[in-house]
Structure formats: structure tokens, C-alpha cells
Specification:
The protein has 421 residues and is of the alpha/beta class. The chain folds into three domains: 189 residues, FAD/NAD(P)-binding domain (3-Layer(bba) Sandwich), CATH 3.50.50.60; 128 residues, 3-Layer(bba) Sandwich (FAD/NAD(P)-binding domain), CATH 3.50.50; 53 residues, no CATH class. 30% of the residues lie in helices and 23% in strands. It contains 14 helices and 21 strands. The strands form six sheets. Strands 1, 2, 3, 4, 5, 6 and 19 form a seven-stranded mixed beta sheet that branches. Strand 12 and strand 13 form a beta hairpin. Helix 1 packs parallel to helix 8 and helix 3 packs parallel to helix 4. This is FAD/NAD(P)-binding oxidoreductase. GO terms for molecular function: oxidoreductase activity. InterPro entries: BFD-like_2Fe2S-bd_dom_sf, FAD/NAD-bd_sf, FAD/NAD-binding_dom, Metab_Enz_Cyan_OpOx_G3PDH, Opine_Oxase_asu/HCN_bsu.
């Protein structure tokens, strides 16, 4: 077989909880499976591995699928573009690949929503999920004062990881109101595992109806100015981890022509997208947590591998976790005041040093790019375009190839012969 031209029965993009569950389900049949991820390790954000990380039992069990003889795992591999019918163009550090598939399962996960505020580009300021990822990869924070802020359950998880790494947790600032959190907590009895998790992650540093106003410092972060209720005060700290929820990764799905529903990939009861033989599962179909992602991935894997009858029994389980996801979304809905934190000179695009004032008032994202170079830097708009969508309500344009920066040799491969068995 030409190693630059692969063929498989099922191609799975993403090796987080949804992707691993899809691979496990599909591996029950004698089918060839290719599982790829742009990260060097499996697990996604929730099961991210690293130095000293002890993976949960569910994660260890899920990772066993990588040992399956008919599964090929491609870590550190990115999708560059769709390359014709049932074919994707891929690239990793060693080579470019054309992979032809019979069925495709998109488990592309989600990314953090980072909203601009004065000082958010200072060294020491990261996303909440980003801090957790850095810690799992060995970042030393012992003795440092840390503030975690934003919205959603990820804040407590990030704070717990920081505490375990020896950080001094100054505050966890949740923007949701006491009433919203109380209603959410009162219904957790329906999900005992989540109730127990909340109890384990609880900290006396948790504050509700509180959010960041400004990060303070000269060459790096020195303190953060916050609002809690009607009071404004400053907290000295060395690190601020600030995340305002998650946004589904839909670029590949949109590029291929899948319909979207809101910010997520639209799927039916069998996790099928609007394209035949293309399925989607996990956070890219809507933010819902690892439990929902795993059951969605299993359904997608079963249906894609010709086992739809076995997926029927999982529908009720999926609905159970979808109900939890709906409650999370309602409880942690963002206060519109958070969309007004940026000042005229606050950078929106950090890569190209584009201030908020340079794009505010533009009609859409394309006009903002043409007038300011916003989104044309190293991150290709992953941060600023997502923020702009939240701030201005812009609908992002359909992503064009290449989806990521790629080598010339990779782009040339797309014009070669199509993949064959």
C-alpha cells in the first residue's frame, strides 16, 4: 500500500471521549478504522495525558481500543482539506496523506471562548482550559497565586488542577447569579455522579455573580480588578485563568458541507449529519460534557459500522445526559455585561495587534479582516473570530481550504491520484 494514500472503512477525526467511544463501537465489526487527532496524545481536553497525570478508569479503558489490530492511530495529524468524494487531505510532521473512507465520524471537540478585556494579553493570563492543559503538561505553579474566572463547570476543574499542582487559589469567580446556581444545584440529584463531582471540586474560594474587569501589570500580570455584586476590588495574583464557556469546533464539518444548527453540527437521532455516511458526536454537536460525548460517540460508531439496532438502547441514556447539558447551558448563560468589557484600545486580535475599535462597527467578519488583518495571524482567527462572533453576532463564513497552514508538498498531493485499496 502507498503510505501516502490510505483507505479505510471508517475514518474518525478526534480522539477525545467521543472519538474513542466511536472507535470502540465500530471495532466490534471486522472493519478497518483510522483514528486521527491533531494533538500528540489521545484523550482530548477532558482526558488530556501528560507528566504525572493519572487518567480516570474510564479513560484507561477507552484507550485500549488503540491496541485493536484493525485500527490505525495517527496522532499529531491535522485535516488540511476535503479532497474530493469521501477523501480528506491530512498532514503531520513526517508527511502528507490522502485518506479515503466509506464513513466519516467527526468528533472535533470544542475550544474555549475567550472574551477580550483590558490586560487580557499580559503574560500570566490564559484561558481556564488552557491553564489546565498547561498544568497537565508539566507547568510549574507551586506557590503562585491563581485566580480562575469566567463561567461554567470548567472553572472548578481548572481550579482543582491548579490546587493539586501547589498553586494558592485566591478566587474562583463565576459570573452566574446565586439564583441560577441554586436552581441548577437543586436539580443535580438526577445525576448523582455529577453531584458527587461537584462536592469533590467545591472550594471556599468560589464566588458567584463575580467577574473580571481588568488584568493589571506592566510586563506581566500582577493583579486583577474584579466586580463581585456591586463591589469592585483588586486581587494580587501571578496567574489569571479566564474562560467564558466552550464553542463547538465546526470548521471541518462546515467545509465539507454539513448543515449547522446554531453554533453546532446538526445531527439526527443516529448522530447522522446532513451528508450521507458522515456522522458527528461529542462537543462539536453541542457542549454537553464527557458523558454525553461518550454515548454520542458510541451511537455514531455503531450506526457507521452497520449496527444501528444496537444503538437504539443508547438513545434514552443520551437523552438523560442531554437534559443535563441543557441545564448547564441555562444556568451558566453569559451576562451581556461581559460582552462590553473591552475598551477601544483593547486588543481583539492578539496575533496582528488589532484593537477592538478597528473592527467594531464593521458589517461582518470578512469586512473586519479586509480593513484590519484581524484573524490573519498565526491562530487563523480561532480566538478572535470566535470572540467577534460572540461580541458582534457575526455569522462566520464557510471555511475554505486549506483549513490550517500546510506545506506546499501537502497541497500538491491533493492533485495526485485518488486513494485506492
Amino acid at each position: 500500500m502507498n503510505e501516502r494514500h490510505l483507505h479505510c472503512d471508517i475514518l474518525i477525526v478526534g480522539s477525545g471521549p467521543a472519538g474513542l467511544a466511536a472507535a470502540q463501537a465500530a471495532s466490534r465489526r471486522e472493519l478497518s478504522i483510522v483514528l486521527l487527532d491533531d494533538n500528540p496524545r489521545t484523550g482530548g481536553q477532558i482526558w488530556r495525558n501528560g507528566p504525572g497525570v493519572v487518567l480516570a478508569r474510564a479513560a484507561r479503558q477507552a484507550l485500549r481500543v488503540l491496541e485493536h489490530p484493525r485500527l490505525r492511530y495517527l496522532p499529531g495529524t491535522r485535516v488540511v482539506a476535503g479532497a474530493g468524494a469521501n477523501t480528506l487531505l491530512l498532514e503531520n510532521a513526517e508527511q502528507a496523506l490522502l485518506v479515503r473512507y466509506q464513513s466519516l465520524i467527526l468528533c472535533c471537540g470544542a475550544r474555549e471562548l475567550l472574551l477580550p478585556f483590558p490586560g487580557w494579553t499580559l503574560p500570566g493570563v490564559t484561558g481556564a482550559g488552557a491553564l489546565q492543559a498547561l498544568l497537565k503538561n508539566g507547568l510549574a505553579v507551586a506557590g503562585e497565586r491563581v485566580v480562575v474566572a469566567g463561567s461554567g463547570p470548567l472553572l472548578l476543574a481548572s481550579a482543582a488542577t491548579a490546587r493539586q499542582a501547589g498553586a494558592r487559589l485566591k478566587a474562583v469567580l463565576e459570573q452566574a447569579s446565586a439564583a441560577a446556581l441554586g436552581t441548577f444545584a437543586a436539580g443535580l440529584w438526577r445525576w448523582p455522579a455529577k453531584l458527587g463531582q461537584a462536592a469533590r471540586l467545591a472550594t471556599p474560594a468560589y464566588r458567584y455573580n463575580a467577574h473580571v474587569l481588568e488584568a493589571l501589570g506592566e510586563d506581566r500580570l500582577e493583579a486583577v480588578r474584579i466586580r463581585q455584586g456591586g463591589k469592585v476590588r483588586e486581587l494580587p495574583c501571578e496567574r489569571l485563568a479566564c474562560g467564558f464557556g466552550l464553542v463547538p469546533n465546526t470548521a471541518l464539518a462546515s467545509h465539507l458541507g454539513c448543515q449547522l444548527q446554531g453554533e453546532a453540527i446538526a445531527v439526527d437521532r443516529q448522530q447522522g449529519t446532513s451528508l450521507a455516511q458522515v456522522y458527528a458526536a461529542g462537543e462539536c454537536t453541542g457542549i454537553g460534557g464527557s458523558e454525553l460525548a461518550r454515548v454520542e460517540g458510541e451511537i455514531a460508531g455503531l450506526v457507521a459500522s452497520g449496527q444501528p439496532q444496537d444503538a437504539v438502547a443508547l438513545i434514552q441514556q443520551r437523552d438523560h445526559w442531554q437534559a443535563f447539558a441543557d441545564r448547564v447551558r441555562k444556568a451558566f448563560a453569559l451576562d451581556p455585561a461581559l460582552l462590553r468589557l473591552a475598551q477601544a484600545d483593547t486588543l481583539l486580535c492578539r496575533c496582528e495587534d488589532v484593537p477592538y475599535a478597528a473592527v467594531a462597527g464593521k458589517a461582518h467578519w470578512t469586512e473586519a479582516k479586509l480593513h484590519s488583518r484581524c484573524g490573519m495571524g498565526a491562530c487563523q482567527g480561532r480566538i478572535c473570530a470566535t470572540a467577534a462572533q460572540a461580541l458582534f453576532g457575526w455569522t462566520p463564513p464557510t471555511p475554505r481550504a486549506p483549513l490550517v497552514p500546510a506545506r506546499i508538498e501537502t497541497l500538491l498531493l491533493q492533485s495526485s491520484m485518488p486513494a485506492v485499496k
